[in-house]
Every structure is written in structure tokens, then in C-alpha cells.
Design brief:
6 helices, 66% helix, two-stranded antiparallel ribbon, mainly alpha, Fumarate Reductase Cytochrome B subunit
Length: 200
């Protein structure tokens, strides 16, 4: 005899999650592309002091290019968010999670906007040139340690703060999925196509 109080499994939750509680395909695409880019730029930043001097300029430029991509993508995602209302949280989500959701997401957006901006200032005042491969952007700014040294420190500290917040964000999503067994994580998970579900 089935116990009606038992929470559904993750697979069952995915099947019964109403469409209006899911994020749309564009929002899901933004989210996962940004996940990949933030991981890449974070790893490149953490490896900064490990690069050989001969290739350091190359990797710093790659770090800057990915950081610029994150910055542009965050602004595009915010523009999309302002014109597309996000879905409501599932009704079984606790009050604590509901109260924390908006400020945590706002702080994530703020950090992903501010950190690349400070990184750009640091890059320019190191006297570096943005090399996009097909063309370069040179601001003709001489290296100025009085500017790039403090901005570099702030850039790094804020990045560590972002990594910590993202880690908590991931842990919270896993907690919702595996402990509470609600549909919070599935809202941002790519939806299965009807054909693939039918064939499974």
C-alpha cells in the first residue's frame, strides 16, 4: 500500500512539475552557459601564479576574454529577466528558501557584474592589450601600480566571495533535490522532450 506522505523521487518530480514552474529554454540556456564560463574564468584565475612566464600573457588575455564574455552575458541575462517574469517557486518550498532566493540571486548578479568590471580596470592599468584574435583593442594606458595593485586585490577578494556564494548555491540546489526532494533544481534543468520521455 502506497504511503501518500512519501515525497516523490526526482524522476517523478520532473514528470509532474507543471510547465509554469519551469524556467524557459532561453533562461536555462543563459544559466548553463554562464556556469561553464564562470568555471573556466575561475580556474584560469586560480592558476594565475602557476603559468610559466613565457605563456603568462597569453593566459591572462584568455582570462580577460572569458571575463568579458561573462560580463556581456550577465547584462544580456538581466535584460531578458527584466522583460520575462521568472516562474514562481514550487508551493512546497519552505519559507526560509523563499526569503533567501531573491537576495542571493541579486548578490550573484551584482558580483558577476562588478568583478569583471574591476578586472577590466586592472587589465587596462597593467598596460595590457585586449587581443581578440582577429583584432586588438589598445587603450594606450601605461602600467600604473597605484591603480592596478588595489583593484587586482579587490578583484581577487570579490572572486573568492563569488566562489563561496556559488558553492552555497550549488549545495542548496543539491539539498533541495536529494534531501527535500522538491522541484527547485528541476526548474532550471533542461526539460525532457516528450518523445524521449515516451521512449524511456
Amino acid at each position: 500500500m502506497n504511503n501518500p506522505t512519501v515525497s516523490p523521487t526526482a524522476d517523478e518530480a520532473q514528470r509532474v512539475l507543471p510547465q509554469e514552474l519551469r524556467y524557459g529554454s532561453v533562461a536555462v540556456g543563459f544559466h548553463w552557459v554562464m556556469v561553464v564560463l564562470v568555471v573556466i574564468v575561475g580556474v584560469l584565475g586560480l592558476l594565475h601564479d602557476s603559468w610559466p612566464r613565457a605563456t603568462q600573457g597569453f593566459w591572462i588575455n584568455i582570462h580577460a576574454m572569458v571575463g568579458l564574455a561573462v560580463w556581456v552575458l550577465v547584462m544580456a541575462r538581466l535584460g531578458w529577466r527584466l522583460t520575462h517574469r521568472p516562474p514562481d517557486l514550487p508551493p512546497d518550498v519552505g519559507q526560509f528558501s523563499q526569503r533567501l532566493s531573491r537576495p542571493v540571486h541579486a548578490l550573484l548578479y551584482a558580483l558577476m557584474l562588478v568583478i569583471p568590471a574591476i578586472g577590466i580596470v586592472t587589465f587596462i592599468y597593467h598596460g595590457r592589450i585586449f587581443d581578440f584574435g582577429l583584432f586588438q583593442v589598445n587603450f594606450h594606458v601605461h602600467s600604473n601600480r597605484r591603480i592596478f595593485h588595489p583593484t587586482e586585490n579587490v578583484h581577487g577578494y570579490l572572486a573568492y566571495g563569488l566562489f563561496a556564494l556559488l558553492g552555497l548555491h550549488v549545495l542548496a540546489a543539491l539539498w533541495h533535490h536529494f534531501v527535500r526532494r522538491d522541484a527547485v533544481l528541476l526548474r532550471m534543468w533542461p526539460a525532457r522532450r516528450a518523445g524521449s520521455e515516451a521512449g524511456s
